[in-house]
C-alpha cells in the first residue's frame, strides 16, 4: 500500500511539474524547444539521480539557478 501511495505522489508531482512548464510556455516565458526538452526530462525522471536531473534542467535553462 505504501508503494502505491508513493507512486501516486510521484505521478502528481510529475503532472504538476509538467503543467507548470506548459503554462510558462503558453505565456511565452520559455520556448517550444525548452518545453519539449523539459517534457522529455520529466517523462524519464526516474532514470536520473536528483543531481543529474538538476544538471539537465540547468542545461535547458542555463540562466536559471536551481
Concise overview:
With 66 residues, the protein is an all-alpha fold.
Residue share in helix: over 70%
The low-pLDDT segments are none
Overall pLDDT score: 87
Number of strands: 0
**Major sheet details:** none
Shape: globular
Number of helices: 3
Strand coverage percent: under 5%
Radius of gyration: 13 Å
Q: Domains counted in the coordinates: how many? A: 1
Structural class: mainly alpha
- Report how far the terminal alpha carbons are from each other: 33 Å
SSE ordering = HHH
Could you please describe the fold and organization of this structure?
With 66 residues, this protein is an all-alpha fold. The chain has one domain (2-60). 73% of the residues lie in helices and 0% in strands. It is built from 3 helices and no strands. The protein has helices spanning 2-26, 32-43, 50-60. Helix 1 packs antiparallel against helix 2 and helix 2 packs antiparallel against helix 3 (50-60). The radius of gyration is 13 Å and the shape is globular.
Question: Which properties best describe this structure?
Answer:
66 residues; mainly alpha; 0% strand
Topology (elements, then pairings):
Layout: H1 2-26, H2 32-43, H3 50-60
Helix pairs in contact: 1-2, 2-3
Amino acid at each position: 500500500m505504501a508503494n502505491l501511495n508513493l507512486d501516486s505522489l510521484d505521478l502528481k508531482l510529475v503532472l504538476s511539474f509538467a503543467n507548470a512548464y506548459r503554462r510558462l510556455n503558453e505565456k511565452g516565458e520559455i520556448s517550444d524547444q525548452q518545453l519539449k526538452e523539459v517534457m522529455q526530462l520529466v517523462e524519464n525522471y526516474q532514470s536520473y539521480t536528483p543531481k543529474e536531473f538538476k544538471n539537465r534542467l540547468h542545461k535547458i535553462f542555463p540562466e536559471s539557478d536551481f
